[in-house]
């Protein structure tokens, strides 16, 4: 006798088929850790997803905000998942008598008010915390030691030092190796004036500051005060064209004496390049 519509043929392991189907749908989740680990390998043109150690006060403020939001979010996530797991185990069908219906809470006004207001409080707390950090770290400063003009273009960055002779460091984008570093002295409050020459770019070095847009026709500002000698990576954080991935950033900090010597070297080199005689081809 044939089976009716929707009835599995005799001898078919329905439970086994369901398990195989579920595994087939879930296998992409198994590769997520591998993708994350591979993505954490820092290479030219890329920034590690692992939050770096902050080296500037505004970078520290962003890091504190990141931790202050992430830890409660993880606790809430674990609480929800554990509650869900408890319900699944306690009320699973295999442990209940035939026809058993779990307790119903639909229409419980107190419970529905609670799980509506609680997320609202969490979201408002995150918004207030983040807004306060934005007001602290992204406001223009006036007591800076000197200013550097950062100009974004397709596809690279120019750094002009107006108070050090007006020379410019060109940081052209590439994936073939490291770009020319943007050099600053340690323990010096520097204001960055960001400008865009063609499309919108975004200057971002996670250990130093948050993402700051470089917009054509508009000056944007951020600042840094690096507290140690070293080198830190960043990248353009705004999709700006086919060469967007090449717009890596390298910031190098050095002592004031080394920075002064570097400034003199750069000023002499660019002065010599400007004064060199040109010959007609």
Topology overview:
Elements: H1 14-30, H2 32-39, H3 57-90, H4 109-137, E1 146-153, E2 156-160, E3 168-172, E4 182-185, E5 190-196, E6 201-204, E7 212-214, E8 220-224, E9 230-236, E10 248-254, H5 256-275
Parallel strand pairs: 1-5, 4-10
Antiparallel strand pairs: 1-2, 2-3, 5-8, 6-7, 6-9, 9-10
What does this protein structure show overall?
Helix 3 runs antiparallel to helix 4. The protein is 38% helix and 20% strand. The strands form 2 sheets. It has a 5-stranded mixed beta sheet with strand order 3-2-1-5-8. A 5-stranded mixed beta sheet has the order 4-10-9-6-7. The protein is an alpha+beta fold and 281 residues long. It contains 5 helices and 10 strands. The radius of gyration is 28 Å and the shape is elongated. It has 2 domains: 50-96 and 109-139, Helix Hairpins; 146-273, Cupredoxins -  blue copper proteins (Immunoglobulin-like, Sandwich), CATH 2.60.40.420.
Concise overview:
By secondary structure, the protein is an alpha+beta fold. Helices cover 38% and strands 20% of the residues.
Rg over CA atoms: 28 Å
Question: How many structural domains can be distinguished in the coordinates?
Answer: 2
**Fraction of residues in H or I helices:** 25-40%
How would you state the average pLDDT, rounded?
82
CATH architecture of the largest domain: Sandwich
Shape estimate: elongated
| Overall SS class | alpha+beta
Q: Tell me, what is the CATH class of the largest domain?
A: Mainly Beta
Percent strand: 15-25%
CATH level 3 topology of the largest domain:
Immunoglobulin-like
CATH superfamily grouping of the largest domain: Cupredoxins -  blue copper proteins
| Largest beta sheet: strand ordering | 3-2-1-5-8
What sequence of helices (H) and strands (E) makes up the elements?
HHHHEEEEEEEEEEH
The biggest beta sheet reads:
5 strands, mixed
Q: Helix tally?
A: 5
Low-confidence stretches: 10-20, 35-45
Strand element count: 10
Question: How many angstroms does the end-to-end distance come to?
Answer: 95 Å
